# Entry
Amino acid sequence: MSDMTLTGQTWVAFGPAGAVGSLHRVESGFTFKLVADDDFRAAYPTLEVAKSALHAALLPGAEWPEFREH
# Structure
């Protein structure tokens, strides 16, 4: 994540068993990391695209998470 700077907005993604990851606003858009990730993933242009990318990174068949801004 060395080329991205977090700007303060954060959303936590919750599945049936609890938190599965988080989304963060960065200068170039939005990024995310799953709970098990060591670092943030790529930057995405919109929040909706980042939400879709986080969902796609979950195990196959996972429900759409609930996103709560913090």
Notes: The mean pLDDT is 94.
